[in-house]
Amino acid sequence: MSHPILELQAAETMADQLKHRRERLVERDQVQAARNELIRWDQARSLMHQRLDELAEQIEESEADGREIDKHRAKLEAQLKTVIAPREAEALQSEITTLSERRSQLDDAELAALEDQTRIEDDLTALLGQEQTLRDAFISADAALNAVATDIDGELTRIADRLDGLRAEVDPALLKRYDRLRGHLVVAATTLSGSRCEGCHLDLSAHEVDDVKDEIAANGVADCPQCGRILLR
Ligand SMILES: [Zn+2]
Fold this sequence. Notes:
Layout: H1 4-23, H2 26-82, H3 86-169, H4 172-182, E1 189-193, E2 196-197, H5 206-219, E3 222-223, E4 230-232
Parallel strand pairs: 1-4
Antiparallel strand pairs: 1-2, 3-4
Helix pairs in contact: 1-3, 2-3
């Protein structure tokens, strides 16, 4: 690569590619995936705590209700011992039976809640056991991203350091044209390869190729008649 404008173009193309690569690093996706895992983990932990709080409240209420029922039933049973009229005794007995049924339902519900509590506590213990692994995975994914990004940044800095020198070697008028083209084109300066412009990849007519070659011979550079890019041999 002889002409400084082509070296400048190559350096800037390399910088563009590195910036593009830096934005689309697979390591960046891996950091995001590890972060999402941690977020899901934290949500699951919150849900389990919330469910455990609800169950504790439910169990406490069951026990308070149970104590009330027991108190009421004991009172009715005491009354039953003093009652003589069979109809009154029957009514009391029926009320006691209803209370016993209600008590039994409460016990069943409380037992189910206690089983849920045990199961969720086990799940929570298992979940908490995953925390360090997930945090370590995030930290190492983040470190891997930083390592790759730092390498790219180092390369970008080296290229940026070279750019001033390369720009100083290019004729100011040509540099101005190059910068204007670079405003809307990735490749502003390229070569003629046979009859093909390597910028727009179109074949020039034999006549156009002759004109371009003449102009390059006279001025060192020419314009591509198809795309307007700076053409060199
Ligand atoms: Zn072209």
